[in-house]
Specification:
Length: 428
């Protein structure tokens, strides 16, 4: 899903290996934690609208469940790979442990492009996915959720298929469901708001007021949209947004130097987060190259799209003014680029801390579904703010105490918790 030759799984393992050395983990624990406990590869045959049959490839990786059921989204993407799924499942393990929720890491994906599929064809993929896995997932062992190019509707189709096969009602099987069908209020906002909760705390650490800052965003899907909403409510100004233009098969950056209105941009954006280029030009946006979000003269960079976006090749083009990178996406910064940012003194809020709001709220949804009692939106977002703030403070304090980069401090906390759970269970 990233550029050819980049392997996110190798990157995830390299990140783990560095911290395993720092923690002096024994060889058994290292071998157990650097790869998934189990994974599934399967084919999903679908009768297309034109009467032909197409076969789609699907994956599900369960990285570790020592601390609780595996948890992680399902992506629909034409360039999905099993190594992407493996990496994301590992990052989900660390993410759940970092914010201290009783879940492990999992991830799934299907190689397909929803842009070119009818809703009926997408429904068949969803139901076929569950038919291949239903004996190996569920509320007590692996709980899926939406991810790139999947939605509440996809989750509801999957839930319906799971319940038909299981012969009962199991709303805790999957999260990201529509509100009213077991979904949680606040879930839509959770990941983006969670990013900004941690950003707010980072600004406090740096003694900077939000209203004195500007930001540039990569991505304009759910995460970026809600991060932008809360960040601008705090007083910050977003001056550039980069998003994919499917028609041109290229990314574009949309810039307004005096600040972008979220509602104005949303009015010319489709459900995939793609901005209409012609309408944007008519409304006074500068249309720049897709990678130009990275070189803007701003205080904050917020990558909220895909992995492998800040690399050794482009990190030196980042403006000297940038002092915070808040990783709304999973794995957006390569280890080589990370080193450069560290040397420059940029405050990086690592992905599995910054974007953990989504899985935290998914956990809240799972709890509500299992007990059949639902909270108000303010309750959910209040609990989310508390959880994200506590996690940020724990990582920040450890980073200061041991003079660690924020990413290393977050990894130390997360990996230590998972390794201890494995040892307590007698696995290593």
């Amino acid at each position: 899903m990233a550029e050819k030759g980049f392997n996110p799984y190798a990157m995830a393992q390299a990140q783990f290996d560095r911290v395993a050395e720092l923690l002096a983990l024994d060889e058994g624990a290292r071998e157990l934690l650097r790869q998934p406990l189990r994974e599934y590869h399967f084919s999903i045959p679908v009768r297309m609208d034109d009467g032909t049959v197409r076969v789609f490839r699907g994956f599900r990786c369960q990285h570790n469940d020592a601390r609780g059921p595996s948890k992680g989204g399902i992506r629909f993407h034409p360039q999905e790979t099993v190594d992407t799924v493996r990496a994301l499942s590992m990052w989900m393990t660390w993410k759940c442990a970092c914010v201290d929720i009783p879940l492990g890491g999992g991830k799934g994906g299907v190689i397909c492009d929803p842009h070119n599929l009818s809703m009926k064809e997408q429904e068949q993929i969803c139901r076929g996915y569950v038919r291949q896995l239903w004996k190996n997932v569920g509320p007590v062992n692996d709980v899926p959720a939406p991810d790139v190019m999947t939605s509440a509707q996809h989750m509801l189709w999957m839930l319906d298929e799971f319940e038909a096969l299981g012969g009962g009602h199991y709303p805790g099987f999957i999260t990201g469901k529509p509100v009213g069908m077991g979904g949680s209020l606040g879930r839509t906002e959770a990941t983006g708001f969670g990013v900004v909760f941690t950003l707010r705390e980072a600004l406090k650490d740096l003694d900077v007021r939000p209203e004195d800052t500007t930001a540039s965003l990569q991505g304009f899907g759910n995460v970026a949209q809600y991060a932008m909403r809360l960040y601008t409510q705090l007083g910050g100004a977003v001056i550039a947004v980069s998003t994919w233009d499917n028609k041109a098969q290229a990314a574009r950056t949309f810039r307004k130097r005096d600040g972008i209105s979220l509602d104005e941009l949303l009015a010319i954006t489709d459900r995939f987060g793609e901005v209409n280029v012609d309408k944007a030009a008519d409304q006074g946006y500068e249309i720049l190259d897709g990678d130009d979000w990275l070189v803007q003269d701003v205080d904050i960079l917020l990558p909220a799209a895909l992995e492998n976006q800040i690399t050794a090749e482009n990190v030196k083009s980042i403006s000297k003014r940038v002092n915070i990178v808040a990783e709304g996406a999973n794995g957006p910064t390569t280890p080589e680029a990370d080193k450069v940012l560290h040397e420059r003194g940029v405050f990086v809020i690592p992905d599995f801390l910054a974007n953990a709001g989504g899985v935290t709220c998914s956990y809240f949804e799972q709890v509500q579904s299992n007990m059949n009692y639902f909270w108000t939106r303010d309750e959910v977002l209040g609990k989310l703010d508390l959880k994200m703030t506590d996690a940020f403070i724990a990582v920040s304090e450890l980073a200061r105490k041991r003079k660690l980069f924020m990413r290393d401090a977050a990894y130390v906390i997360a990996i230590n918790r998972v390794a201890q759970a494995c040892k307590d269970r007698g696995w290593c």
